[in-house]
Amino acid sequence: MNRLTHLFQHKTADVLNVYFTAGFPQLNDTVPILKALQDAGADLVEIGMPYSDPVADGETIQRSNQQALENGMTVATLFEQLQGIREQGITVPVLLMGYLNPVVQFGVEKFCQQCQAVGVDGVILPDLPLDVYEREYKPLFAQHDLKVVFLVTPQTSAARVRQLDALADGFIYLVAAAGTTGAQTDMNADVDAYLSRTKALGLRNPTLVGFGISDAASFAAASRHTTGAIIGSAFIRLLQATPTEGRTAAIQAFVRGVRP
Amino acid sequence: MTIAATSPYRVDATGYYGPFGGAYVPEMLYPNVEELRDNYLRIIQEPEFQREFTQLLTDYVGRPTPLFLARRLSAHYGTTIYLKREDLCHTGAHKVNNTIGQILVAKRLGKKRIVAETGAGQHGVATATVCALMGLECIVYMGEIDIERQKPNVDRMRMLGAKVVPATSGSKTLKDATNEAMRHWISNPTDTHYIIGSVVGPHPYPDMVARFQSVISAETISQLLHQTGRGTPDFMLACVGGGSNAAGAFYHYLDEPSVRLVAAEAAGKGVNTGHSAATTALGKPGILHGASTILMQTADGQVTEPYSISAGLDYPGIGPQHAHLFATGRAEFLSITDKQALDAGFQLSRLEGIIPALETAHALACLPLIGAKPDEVVVVCLSGRGDKDLATYTKHLEEYA
Ligand SMILES: Cc1ncc(COP(=O)(O)O)c(C=O)c1O
Q1: Which of A19-33, A210-224, B26-40, B63-77 has the lowest mean pLDDT?
Q2: Is pLDDT at B4 greater than 60 in this prediction?
Q3: Do residue B302 and residue A153 have CB atoms under 8 angstroms apart?
Q4: pLDDT at B5
Q5: For residue B313, how far is its CA from the centre of ligand 1 (angstroms)?
Q6: Whose CA is nearest to atom 16 of ligand 1?
Q7: Residue A101 to chain B, least CA–CA distance (Å)
Q8: Which pLDDT belongs to residue A260?
Q9: Residue A188 — very low, low, confident or very high, per pLDDT cuts 50/70/90?
Q10: Are strands A172-175 and B16-17 parallel, antiparallel or unpaired?
Q11: Rounded CA gap, B308 and B314, in Å?
């Protein structure tokens, strides 16, 4: 069974998803960081494929993308790095997140084949239009057992949330507040109202909240009405600030700090 | 501004030009783009909108711009050359046709704030101008490097009351200013309108901007008819950064196969020197700034940094309609080097007493390449004046003494 599907069948609350950029801080850090996150107890991991023009991302993730590209990261290199992870004891669900152009240039069908070959469970492509997905990509993704995640924001109409929910089969990514990744979202009454409003829609997919989640307080507030939350920029900042030797321990402490 | 929906060169009902176009935006931008998509045609077809738009183009911008028979230039090339004088628009370029149209749309959508990107600063100035005129707050993103090389336009924007914000991400030029403007829009989704400066971006921007710029070819038809007895030239020449002046100059001629449409791209130091912005020569289909189009990119799909002497052509993509015109062969794309553009800029200055913008000089540089015959008529879209480029021209004065 798809690891993502399996996870959500067994865990329906306080799910922690951690994002990091492939090939950052060093080109070959991707798999060691993935392993450290699994060991620290992350429930799923989202690996970012770096892009030159990440419009939905704030400064922290932009800089990690740029650094990864300077390190020589490519989609092809990422698949080489992920080769064999499932044989080496990585059991945590893995998603690839990225912008559409590098995937299109790699070849969407080849991308899906490679995902399946290395054991990737799902994808998040924020600039993939829903109609293009439905018309061109859905059968391909299904054929390679890749789950798809769609974003929803506070501005998304209820009708469109239902449409996105009908086509998603991984989870629904609830963007906490209008903004790019890393924006400081205080989990205020507005955000709470948006999350409980979304809960009331009774979506068929699990929901994870992202953007601006950085610590135990924001994680708990975000998870109150949802299946869990996603941490990105705060984790990238940790990677930036931590020397390689202390990294495994720092990741342990970080995950424990977010979800005690 | 009615269009034949059946034209193969215009946007179709789903927002595409053949395989190009669409709206490849993250969900954060979907409601904004949807609001615009669902309302733009209705708004711009309202009689009251048309009245206000036309009146501002007349009384404020100074339209119609003249169609000038360039006798000495014609004699030099042995053909008949007319210049469509967009350089005489208020603020000095065609860009203001679009900003007037978009600010009227923004007002009707109830927006309080305008955000824009700019490269050379011409679109930024045109946006700051209409914001002052309408009393709306104006924020312009400009690459940190462009802020340094286009200082006079930065000062003009500030004088007009706009806030100029340096884009410090990526390569710190137009592409990154566009990213930053989009990020600003993502963070301010309800009260802000993004006035994009060319026929780029997600649907409906390319179509909306082309409609506002279509006044260029609409006027050309009646002026040519009046001056020559025929509304169609044999050649229509325009430069292409994103492609808005070209889209306007081509607009009413798209379905007139007798009119050869010629688009000038910036080859920089030469198409194969690694310092170029010749998108169709160097690019491949892909996705940039919300549209499927042709763009300069690495084999891995990373957008590459273009180069041109002209900041307004220093962009790694072209609008989706131009990608379609290129792919179908409806328009010819010529690559013009910095040197060819400088030659043409000095030539027009000396032969006709008109200093063109460096962008425009690329269109003029096509004149020796198209093989126009003595009995043929060539129209060049003179997209802007060269005052902003004087510092660059001055560096080369000796060579043209
Ligand atoms: C005078 C002039 N012409 C042309 C351009 C290029 O833009 P577009 O290709 O959208 O007409 C610019 C952009 O700054 C400009 O200032």
Answers
A1: A210-224
A2: no
A3: no
A4: 55
A5: 7
A6: B122
A7: 5
A8: 87
A9: confident
A10: unpaired
A11: 5
Q: From the CA of B243, how far away is ligand 1's center (Å)?
A: 7
Q: Which one is catalytic: B86, B111, B117, B310? A: B117
Q: Is the CB of B240 under 6 A from ligand 1?
A: yes
Q: Can you give the pLDDT at residue B149?
A: 79
Report whether B281 contacts B313 (CB < 8 A): no
Among B122, B146, B215, the mutation site with the greatest number of ligand 1 atoms within 8 A of its Cβ is B122
Beta bridge partners of B82: B69, B379
Task: Tell me which residue has its CA closest to atom 6 in ligand 1.
Answer: B241
pLDDT of A250 higher than 80 = yes
Closest Cα partner for B305 from B125, B149, B172?
B172
CB A177 within 8 A of CB A183: yes
Nearest to A95, CA basis, from A14, A5, A12, A9:
A5
Give the residue extent of every domain in chain B: 26-58+95-202, 62-92+209-400
CATH architecture observed for domain B62-92+209-400: 3-Layer(aba) Sandwich (3.40)
Those of residues 320-339 in B touching chain A at CB distance below 8 A are none
Atom 10, ligand 1: which residue's CA is nearest? B244
B295 in Cβ contact with B316 (< 8 Å): yes
Q: Give me the mean pLDDT over the B255-263 stretch.
A: 98
Same fold, B26-58+95-202 and B62-92+209-400: yes
- Is the pLDDT reported for residue A116 higher than 50? yes
Distance from CA of A260 to the nearest CA of B (A): 31
Alpha-carbon distance values, A94 to A91, A151, B267, B269, B317 (Å): 9, 17, 43, 45, 33
Query: Is B45 an interface residue toward A (CB < 8 Å)?
Result: no
Looking at CATH, the fold of the domain delimited by B26-58+95-202 is given as: Rossmann fold (3.40.50)
Average pLDDT over residues B132-139: 98
In terms of Cα–Cα distance, which of A40, A3, A49, A51 is closest to A18? Answer: A40
Any ligand 1 atom below 6 A from CB of B248: no
- The pLDDT score that the predictor gives to residue A136 is 95
Q: Is B383 a catalytic residue?
A: yes
- Does B96 sit in the ligand 1 pocket, CB within 6 Å? no
B102's tokens: 């978009």
- Cα A191 to Cα B294: distance, rounded to the nearest angstrom: 39
pLDDT score for B173? 87
Mean pLDDT over the full length of chain A: 96
